[in-house]
Amino acid sequence: MTRRALACLLVVLSLSGCLAKESEMLGAPVEGYNHTSAAINRFTVNGAGGPNLGPYGGGGGQVCCGSVPRHWRPGLRAIVEWEKDPDPRPAIPLKRNKYGTLDPEDYKKHAANYTHHRVVVEIPQYQEAGTLKVHFLPCDQVRVSADNIFYGVSGYPYNFPRKMEDTECPTP
Predict the structure, then answer these.
(1) How far apart are CA 165 and CA 154, in angstroms?
(2) How far apart are CA 120 and CA 142, in angstroms?
């Protein structure tokens, strides 16, 4: 091989390194919606943490970052884990010191009622990957979307009422 051919080959190989392949996975903010009277103290979706959610709260903040496939594929699922406080506003308020810190013994008694959950849910088809949106529903049910359409907008797959009674268990 001549020097000129070798030089051309090296140029072609170095230029091909500049043409990066499109990534299969994209970074996605995580957002949560709590449609229940419980508090969601913490949650993760596919290992990425989301914000804590008060009763009937959420949608006001995102945490970075989860990941979603650039293109939806059949059988796409999410693993959601969460800690729930079923009584976030106890009838007898928890004691606090003069700095507002919870009394450790009161907190231990209250936290003993927290429940921990894990579910695997399907992610509905999307045209364009976007935010990971997790909806916490009565009866410890969860729905996740990963599209670029948002809660309350026509075409969004999970426009549940903001407040749902604990007896309103959505059908899967």
Answers:
(1) 23
(2) 9
The residue ranges of every structural domain in the chain are 25-147
| Contact yes or no for 37/25 (Cβ under 8 A) | no
Burial label, 41 (beta-carbon count in 10 A; 0-12, 13-18, 19+): middle
Conformational region of residue 11, where left means phi above 0, alpha means psi within -120 to 50, and beta covers everything else: alpha
**Whose structure tokens read 């969460």?**
82
Q: What's the CA gap between 77 and 117, in Å, rounded?
A: 16
* pLDDT tens for each residue of 28-44: 999 999 999 999 999 99
Q: What is the pTM of this model?
A: 0.80
CATH, range 25-147: 2.60.40
8-state DSSP, 140? G
